[in-house]
Amino acid sequence: MLRPILDEIFSVLSNGEHYKVHTLAAHLQAVELLKQLDEDPNQDLFKRNFVLMNSLYSLQSELIEDGIYLHVDSMDIYLADKGQAPELNTPLRSYYLDWQNYHTDNKEIEALLDSFWQRFSYQQYSTNQPLDKATVDNLCQQWQITQPLEEKAIRRRWRQLALKYHPDKGSDDDLMFKQLQDEYQQLLSHIKVF
Q1: Per-residue b/e over 102-121, b at no fewer than 16 CB within 10 Å?
Q2: Cα separation values, 75 from 25, 32, 129, Å
Q3: Are 62 and 6 in contact (CB under 8 A)?
Q4: How far apart are CA 192 and CA 79, in angstroms?
Q5: How far apart are CA 181 and CA 192, in angstroms?
Q6: Residue 60 near residue 112 (C-beta atoms within 8 A)
């Protein structure tokens, strides 16, 4: 079932460039190899990501036998010489190669997405600067949330905006998504300071 996906991924990566998961996912969707997998948006996003990551790790296993290392990281995917290969048996690799994880309930998917985006946002866009009142007011208006700010309301709105603007959902505005991530972290940091 996955052979056409593996072949297409290898073909794309053979140009020597580095790719991101959402870039590869968009390409596979464009060539109709990664179609909608579920009616529920969270389930669909999770399942598409699962199939793509499973394909990448499966291809990684095949290529290492031929002396080619496939580096798999959500933000950096590329082919390299086998000499650059680190330990391949990682928990993430094991997770995506186990098809039992494909059927995951919405609560677990929500927790996984929250955890991923919190780690990603914290690493990329964390801020220790408290926001001034004008900035907070402006963000509340843009995000359509009310004051006083509550963590639960910020997280709920973040999920809505992330689903709408996530690059895997067809949004080609990566800058908008990164801006939303930054604002999300700013709002969370702001309520923790005050």
Answers
A1: eebeeeebeeebeeebbeeb
A2: 12, 22, 27
A3: yes
A4: 42
A5: 17
A6: no
Q: How far is CA 104 from the centre of its chain?
A: 17
Asked whether 154 and 145 are in contact (CB, 8 A), the reply is yes
Within 13 Å, how many C-alpha atoms sit on residue 155's CB side? 11
Cβ partners under 8 Å of residue 83, min gap 6: 69
Distance CA 112, CA 119 (A): 11
Summarised one tens digit per residue, pLDDT across range 81-134 is 877 667 777 788 888 899 988 888 877 777 766 666 555 554 444 444 567 888
Could you tell me if 29 and 35 are in contact, meaning their C-beta atoms sit under 8 angstroms apart?
yes
Beta bridge partners of 68: 81
Q: Which residue has the tokens 């140009």?
A: 15
**Which two structure tokens, joined as six digits, stand for 189?**
């940091």
Question: Letter for the amino acid at 106?
Answer: N
> If you ran DSSP here, which 8-state letter would residue 68 be given?
E
Domains with residue ranges and CATH for the chain: 3-102 (no CATH), 106-193 (1.10.287)
Q: For the chain, which residues score pLDDT lower than 70?
A: 1-2, 84-85, 112-130, 167-174, 192-194
Alpha helix segments (H runs only) across 90-150: 91-97, 106-125, 133-143
The three-state secondary structure class of 14 is coil
pTM equals: 0.59
